[in-house]
Amino acid sequence: MTLPTVPSVPSVPSTAAGIAAGVRGGELRAADVVEHHLAAIAAREPEIHAFNLVMADQARAAAAAIDARVAAGEDVGPLAGVPVALKDNMCTQGVPTTCSSRILDGWRPPYDATVVSRLAGAGAVVIGKTNLDEFAMGSSTENSGFGPTRNPHDTTRVPGGSSGGSAAAVAAGFSPVSLGSDTGGSIRQPAALCGVVGVKPTYGYVSRYGLIAFASSLDQIGPFATTVHDAALVLDAIGGHDPHDSTSIPEPHSPLVDVLDRGVEGLRVGRITDLPEGADPDVAERLEAAFDALRDAGATVVDVQVPAFGYALTAYYLIAPAEASSNLARFDGVRFGLRVDAPDTNSMYSATRAAGFGAEVKRRIMLGTYALSAGYYDAYYGRALKVRRLIHDDFARAYMHADVLLTPTSPTVAFPFGAKGDNPLAMYLCDLYTIPTNLAGHPGMSVPFGTGADGLPVGVQVLAGTLDEATMFRVGAALERAALGPKGAA
């Protein structure tokens, strides 16, 4: 299906790499880049609703400052003048940050998240805050307190979630890159449904300081982009150790942009023979085409087993809600956002949370609180942690035989609004193939690889071991090249 076109300025490249090169070289003004993207937003944002807030004035001011620095002979950074959209669960100083929840109504953080500071240091321009499933809990961006986001490829369908606004913003041309957060697939699944690249790095690769927590042992920030190169460029800019985050990995990271042309000759690509069933035939067909393409490019396809893979979904929906029930206890009407007046403090807590939290958030808080309660902790939460360890160990054994693993990203292409909303289990199954990687803490990425039913995008997921982003990106780049040829054609 062809996206409706937005009038474009020929001199503004479509990629972040092209924009940054033009601005740094003086051939392109950051101000013109921003105006081009604001025009694209004005043309289609009313029908798509990718943003909770478009920061037009701030973006124009930042672009003008970049142009002044370039004119003065400064090198403003590898993302010079590149518009970036931020998922609205990342703190921006003085700018509303809502998590798409009414309970944070009116809250303006007093500081920037580390990733926001690093984007600014790299010369990027924040153009807006994007919509999401409330507190990142969902797989369709239908759970937002500000209304759903629509898929730019077909506005009757969901963009995926929870980072649906960030994925849609890139797919619609509102920004060449964006940031999302991934707790159980919330970057990779919407990337697949919107036909863009989405990356969840190794846990600790990118600082979580300033990311409003859903499940602290699972959350990780990563980029959306139209190309693998742009995703690498952004990840190079935001990655690295941060003393503000105790889980941040202290080792330095080598530039990912340097590995993209190395190819896959000699790499072992793992096919998981005990992968849970659930992928639609059109998605399974694209996965097979991806294996063929990598084999043709010089890789070897090997069979591996990850026996605990199929238990990840149940373990996740005990661990993540348990952590959420603890993290979201801070939203009580006292310190942040919404406050509903009541006769006493406990009544105020209850009234504020009843009015401020949506149905899905309440469902997960209650599930998590139950799993942590006396008498049930060992039976549910404790057992889920043991399954998590088994998943990690099974992946470790698989990576002894394969350098990367390939799976579907999403079991289906983008589905219509309302198709799964009344059945939470059906919605949770959207993350069947992405959740295990979060539990293991490993990196994963979704790369567009042709189309499936109704001409909608299909994503193939590339998984790698801890801190092996370089190999993952090599394979992702090879898949992207193959997608342009006869093997990758839908």
UniProtKB/TrEMBL annotation:
Signal peptide: none annotated. Gene3D superfamilies: Amidase signature (AS) domain. Keywords: ATP-binding, Ligase, Nucleotide-binding, Protein biosynthesis. Pfam families: Amidase. One of its GO terms (cellular component) is mitochondrion. It is an enzyme of class 6 (ligase). Its EC number is 6.3.5.7. Residues 32-471 form the Amidase domain. It catalyses: L-glutamyl-tRNA(Gln) + L-glutamine + ATP + H2O = L-glutaminyl-tRNA(Gln) + L-glutamate + ADP + phosphate + H(+). One of its GO terms (biological process) is translation. PROSITE patterns: AMIDASES. The keyword Protein biosynthesis applies. GO terms for molecular function: ATP binding; glutaminyl-tRNA synthase (glutamine-hydrolyzing) activity. The keyword Nucleotide-binding applies. SUPFAM superfamilies: Amidase signature (AS) enzymes. InterPro entries: Amidase, Amidase_CS, Amidase_dom, AS_sf, GatA. Belongs to the amidase family. GatA subfamily. NCBIfam families: gatA (TIGR00132). PANTHER family: GLUTAMYL-TRNA(GLN) AMIDOTRANSFERASE SUBUNIT A, TRANSAMIDASE. This is glutaminyl-tRNA synthase (glutamine-hydrolyzing). The lineage of its organism: unclassified sequences, metagenomes, ecological metagenomes.
